[in-house]
Design a protein that fits this description.
single chain; alpha+beta; OB fold (Dihydrolipoamide Acetyltransferase, E2P); five-stranded mixed beta barrel; five-stranded antiparallel β-sheet
C-alpha cells in the first residue's frame, strides 16, 4: 500500500493539470488506509441488514469464493480497490455468520396461561416492585403452546428478586418477538433475537423456586448479583433516595431505583450518558486505578528506575476495568467499552501511544467481528463517533499546545496552562457531543441544545469527585469504611443534579427534532468520518457530504395516517401538519413515537385534544386531504358499520369481509399479519408501508401463526 502511494506521488509531479492535484491529495492519505477498514466493514454489515430477503446458501458459497480471490489479489497486488471490496464483503459475510451462529427456536404465536419451568440466566431490577429476567425454558405446559423457544425475556412484579441459576416454576403468558412499533422504526425484536431470546412475556402469581442449576457460570453470575445487592444496600444506607439510584447506576449498573423525575432531568439536560456504563466510566475507573498504582510504585526509587512500572500499572488497569465490567453486569454495551479500554492499555504494554485513531480502529474491528449487529445500535454509533471526534480534536489541540509553548515565554505559558484545561473540556464536549448528535437525532429525534453547558459544569465533579470516591468506596467496603467516600460522592452528585435540573428548565431544553432520514444520517456520518480521518484538501469532501445531507432532509416524506400495531389507536395529519391521535390514552407508546419522529414535544394526550377527530358511539371520523377516515374502536352487537361514509376504514377488530366496498381497509387481522401501518397520500393513490413489510423475510422476522388449542411442549 505504501509503495503504491509513493508511485502515485511520483506520478502526480509529472501531471500539470487537475489530475495531479487529485493524485497528490490521494498520496497524502498514506498511512490512513487502516483507519478506514472499520468503515468498509460497516458498509458490508449494513448492506447485509438492508436486504429484504435472506441470501440463499448458494449465494453465500459464491461470496466465499469471491472473498478468497479478492484476498489473494489484495495481498499480492496490494490493490486499494481489491482491499476495499474484500473488507466490505467480509463485513457482509461476518453478519451472515453471526446470524447463523445465534439462530435459535422462537415462539410464533402467543400462548394462553401456561405453566413455565425455566432456569434464570439473568435478572434486572426495573423499579421498586418490578423486574425482568432472561429464562432458559425447560418446559411449557398449557394453552396455545405450539413451539418451545430456547430463551424468553419475562417481566414480573411484586418485588420478587431472582438470582441466576435458580430453577423456577410459575404461571406465565408468552408472546412472539415484537415487530417495530412503527414502520421502519427501531426493531427491538431483532435486538432480542441476536441475544438468543425467542419470546417475551410476563410471570404472574406465586413464583416457586424448585432447585438450582449447577453450571459454574450461573453460580458466578449469582455471586456477582449478590455482591451488587450488598453494594446497593451499603449505598442506600448512606446516600438519600433521590440520588442513591444514580450512585448505584454508576457503581453496579443497576438503574431500576432512579426516580423518574431524575431520569427525565438528566435526559433533557444531556447528562443521561452518565447513567450508562460506557467508555467514560471505564476510562475514569480504570484510568484512576492505573494512575494510583503507578504513583504508588513510583514511591520506590528502585522500582521506578529498574522496572517498567507503567506497564505494571497498565495490567492493573486492565484487571480493574474487567472487574468493573463484571460488577456492572457485563452488558453488550459495557463489553464494547471494555474492549476499547483494553486496546488502549495493550498499546501501553506494546510501547505505543494509548490515544490514537489506530487504536480506535482496532477496537472497532474487534467489536464488529465479534458482534456485527452492534453496527445497527445507537450506543455503538454514538460511542465511536464521539471518541473519533475526541481523538481528532486531541491531535489538533496537542499540536497547538506545542507550538504555543515554543513561542511564548514563562508568563505566557502559565497563562495558557491556567485556561487550557477549561477549553480542553469545552472543545472536547463540543466535538464529542456534536458528532454523537448525528446518531442521536437519527435514532431518538432528540438533541441536547444545552448539553455543552451541562457537561462543562458537571464534568469536573464527575471526574474529580464522583467517580474517584465511587472507586474508593468500593475498595473500602470490605473494611466497613465506605461511609465517608460515599458522602463525598453524594456531594458531587448534588452538584451534578443541580446542574441537570437548572439546564433542563432552560427554554427549549427538550431539544426535540424530527428524526433524520436514513440517507441524511449516513451522509452526515460520512462527512464526520472524512473530516476526522482524511488529510489535506480531501477533507473538503466532508462539506460536500454535509450539503448533500441537508438536501435529503428537504425530501423527507412523512405519513398522513399512522395505525398502531394492534389498531388500538390511529393518528392523522391535519392541514396544519400536526399529527392528531384519536385517543388520549389508548396506544400511548406508539403515539409518543409518532410525535417524537415529528419532533413534536407535546404528549399524546395533548395531541389528541387538537381539532381533527369527531367521535360518537365508538365511531370516530376525520377528513384528511379530502379523504374521509373512519375509525371504529370496538365491535358491538347489531352494529352497523359506516361503510358508505369511509374512504379509509380502520377497525380495532376483525371485519371478516364486511365493508368490501371500502377500498382501503385495515382491521385487527391486517395489523396482526403486517404490524403497524403508515399511509402516504400520493397523486395516484395511497401508498401503504407496514412494519413487517419493511422488515422483509429475515430470520428474526416472526410471521405470526394463529393460537392453537391446548397442547404441551417440553
Amino acid at each position: 500500500m505504501a509503495d503504491w502511494v509513493q508511485d502515485v506521488g511520483a506520478e502526480a509531479r509529472e501531471r500539470p493539470d487537475w489530475r495531479a492535484w487529485m493524485v497528490a491529495a490521494v498520496a497524502r492519505q498514506s498511512g490512513t488506509f487502516f483507519l478506514w477498514s472499520p468503515v468498509c466493514l460497516l458498509a458490508g454489515i449494513w448492506s447485509y441488514f438492508a436486504l429484504s430477503r435472506e441470501p440463499p446458501p448458494a449465494a453465500f458459497a459464491v461470496l466465499a469464493l469471491i472473498l478468497v480471490l479478492l484476498f489473494l489479489l489484495a495481498w499480492l497486488r496490494r490493490g486499494t480497490v481489491a482491499t476495499v471490496l474484500f473488507l466490505t464483503l467480509l463485513g457482509f459475510s461476518l453478519a451472515k455468520i453471526r446470524t447463523e451462529w445465534v439462530a435459535s427456536p422462537v415462539l410464533r404465536a402467543p400462548t394462553g396461561e401456561v405453566m413455565l419451568t425455566g432456569v434464570v440466566e439473568d435478572f434486572e431490577v426495573r423499579g421498586p416492585r418490578r423486574g425482568a429476567a432472561v429464562l432458559r425454558i425447560v418446559t411449557l405446559e398449557g394453552k396455545g403452546v405450539t413451539r418451545l423457544p430456547s430463551h424468553a425475556r419475562v417481566t414480573l412484579s411484586g418485588g420478587t428478586r431472582l438470582l441466576p441459576g435458580q430453577v423456577i416454576k410459575a404461571k406465565a403468558q408468552l408472546f412472539p418477538l415484537p415487530p417495530p412499533a412503527i414502520p421502519g422504526g427501531y426493531d427491538h425484536g431483532r435486538t432480542l433475537w441476536f441475544q438468543g431470546i425467542g419470546a417475551t412475556g410476563r410471570l404472574y402469581g406465586d413464583i416457586a423456586s424448585i432447585g438450582r442449576d449447577a453450571a459454574w457460570l450461573l453460580r458466578f453470575k449469582a455471586a456477582v448479583q449478590g455482591l451488587r445487592d450488598v453494594i446497593g444496600l451499603r449505598i442506600r444506607a448512606v446516600i438519600p433516595p433521590e440520588r442513591s439510584g444514580v450512585a448505584e447506576a454508576l457503581i453496579t449498573g443497576e438503574r431500576g431505583s432512579i426516580p423518574p423525575e431524575v431520569n427525565d432531568s438528566l435526559q433533557t439536560s444531556g447528562l443521561a450518558h452518565i447513567l450508562s456504563i460506557s467508555g467514560l466510566h471505564m476510562t475514569l475507573v480504570a484510568g484512576l486505578f492505573f494512575a494510583l498504582v503507578r504513583a504508588v510504585l513510583a514511591l520506590s526509587p528502585t522500582l521506578a528506575t529498574a522496572y517498567p512500572i507503567k506497564k505494571w500499572a497498565a495490567v492493573a488497569g486492565l484487571v480493574m476495568g474487567f472487574a468493573y465490567m463484571v460488577l456492572a453486569g457485563a452488558s453488550v454495551a459495557t463489553q464494547r467499552s471494555y474492549i476499547m479500554l483494553a486496546v488502549m492499555f495493550v498499546a501501553i504494554l506494546a510501547d505505543r501511544p494509548a490515544l490514537s485513531m489506530r487504536n480506535l480502529a482496532i477496537a472497532a474491528l474487534i467489536i464488529l467481528v465479534l458482534f456485527p449487529e452492534a453496527a445497527l445500535t445507537a450506543s455503538f454509533q454514538m460511542s465511536f463517533l464521539a471518541v473519533m471526534g475526541l481523538l481528532a480534536f486531541y491531535e489538533v489541540w496537542s499540536k497547538w499546545l506545542v507550538e504555543g509553548e515554543t513561542r511564548r515565554g514563562l508568563i505566557g505559558r502559565l497563562w495558557r496552562r491556567a485556561f487550557r484545561d477549561f477549553w480542553a473540556v469545552a472543545f472536547t464536549s463540543l466535538a464529542a457531543g456534536g458528532l454523537s448528535s448525528i446518531a442521536a437525532a437519527y435514532h431518538f429525534g432528540r438533541l441536547a441544545p444545552y448539553g455543552l453547558i451541562a457537561n462543562l459544569l458537571a464534568f469536573l465533579a464527575m471526574s474529580l469527585v464522583v467517580m474517584p470516591m465511587a472507586v474508593l468506596a468500593v475498595l473500602l467496603m470490605p473494611f466497613g469504611l465506605e461511609s465517608w467516600p460515599l458522602q463525598a460522592m453524594d456531594l458531587g452528585l448534588v452538584w451534578v443534579q443541580a446542574v441537570s435540573d437548572w439546564v433542563s428548565r432552560l427554554p427549549a431544553a427538550q431539544g426535540m427534532v424530527p428524526t433524520l432520514p436514513r440517507v441524511t444520517a449516513i451522509l452526515l456520518g460520512l462527512a464526520a468520518i472524512v473530516l476526522c480521518l482524511a488529510r489535506g484538501p480531501v477533507r473538503g469532501f466532508a462539506l460536500a457530504f454535509a450539503i448533500m445531507s441537508f438536501i435529503f432532509i428537504g425530501l423527507r416524506d412523512d405519513p398522513d395516517i399512522q395505525i398502531e400495531g394492534a389498531a388500538k389507536t390511529v393518528a392523522v395529519r391535519m392541514a396544519a401538519g400536526d399529527m392528531v391521535p384519536v385517543h388520549a390514552r389508548r396506544g400511548r407508546f406508539a403515539a409518543s413515537l409518532w410525535l417524537r419522529r415529528e419532533g413534536d414535544e407535546v404528549t399524546p394526550a395533548e395531541a389528541a385534544r387538537r381539532p381533527g377527530w369527531s367521535c360518537g358511539e365508538g365511531v370516530c371520523g376525520a377528513t384528511v386531504d379530502g379523504r374521509r377516515v373512519v375509525y371504529v374502536d370496538r365491535e358491538r352487537p347489531d352494529m352497523t358499520l359506516p361503510c358508505a361514509e369511509a374512504d379509509i376504514l380502520v377497525a380495532a377488530f376483525p371485519l371478516r369481509g364486511r365493508c368490501r366496498s371500502v377500498k382501503w381497509r385495515v382491521d385487527r387481522f391486517s395489523v396482526w399479519r403486517e404490524g403497524a401501518h403508515a399511509l402516504y397520500f400520493e397523486a395516484d393513490g395511497i401508498r401503504v408501508e407496514t412494519a413487517r413489510g419493511l422488515q422483509g423475510e429475515r430470520p428474526w422476522v416472526i410471521m405470526p401463526e394463529p393460537r392453537r388449542k391446548d397442547t404441551s411442549r417440553q
